[in-house]
Amino acid sequence: MSSRWAGIVLPGLLGLVIGAGAVLLAGVAGLVRLPNGPVASFSNPVIATDFADPTTIRAADGLYYAYSTEQLTVDRMAYLQVARSRDLVHWELLPDALARKPVWAAATRDFWAPGAIEADGRTWLYFAALPDEGDGMCLGVASASTPAGPFEPVDQPLSCSPGFVDIDPMPFDDPVSGKRYLYWGSDGSPILARELAPDRTSFAEGSETIDVMRRDLVAPYEHLVEAPWVVHREGRYYLFYSGDDCCSSDPAYAVMVARADDPLGPYEKRGEALDEWGENVILHFSDAWVGPGHNALLTDGDGTDWLVYHAIDPESPDQPAVAARKRPMLIDRIEWVDGWPRIAGDQPSSGPVAAPVSP
Going by C-beta distance under 8 Å and a sequence separation of 6 or more, which residues neighbour residue 24? Predict the structure, then answer.
């Protein structure tokens, strides 16, 4: 087995239940045993099958969990994917996160880009889905007693809109104010945010949707901005975002960053702060990987931050038996320089590099 497949188990299809409100079931052919010892080095990808739009958490059980856009191929069948890891390098694929499909999206597919948070004794999973009625996409939420799931969806969407503005939800609990926020947006929209209610399944009474950050049509990769990820670090809020073409035959996708003194902005982009065109971008294509983006951020046992994201291998760009791009999951070390995050070379690593330190 080559190193790029090490630690990955491809699930076998156990069953497909078809009918009104159909639920697609996914099983795992065998579960890998996560290593207990330290890992000295690794090479990308860390999940070599399709695991697009990853979101990640470090859970109370001490393990890392990653959640991903649907995968409905001969490789794997799950509406919302889940994987877990002890070291960020070896990942165990778990069955479908959803216990069932929500009633508002019971007869459709297209479950995209979940965002996860562990809070109030539960794990909350926000996602986008194609509704049974109407045009466009909707934001939904599900919760589970454990980060591995299964997640029970709420049978009412949080928000719906034409096109695909309502995608890429990211929940964030502000450690300063204690408020709960949800960020999302795409399809020419600014990055959006709105305060969540204490129940986390609805928006706060009297809250409004805020334009957090607008795209810059003369900046690279910003004809479309999406995939927000917010972190609080040393008194500032950092907004990582992606744009603008993730999945065509010639993708143009990258990770950018901005920062603010308040979770709702205004956000100053890195290029604006440095007064250098194009310096918003901290991760772009390389010879080995194209279309890198839609990131999350995790911190290892040594306090080092890691960018978790998807990318496309130009030598193996497509999923098996379907007309869709294969987007494996990669990780790379973040360096903080003068108050801004950087990735070495602004590109995905393509050879052996030092591994994260396990907690």
Answer: 16, 17, 72, 77, 78, 79, 96
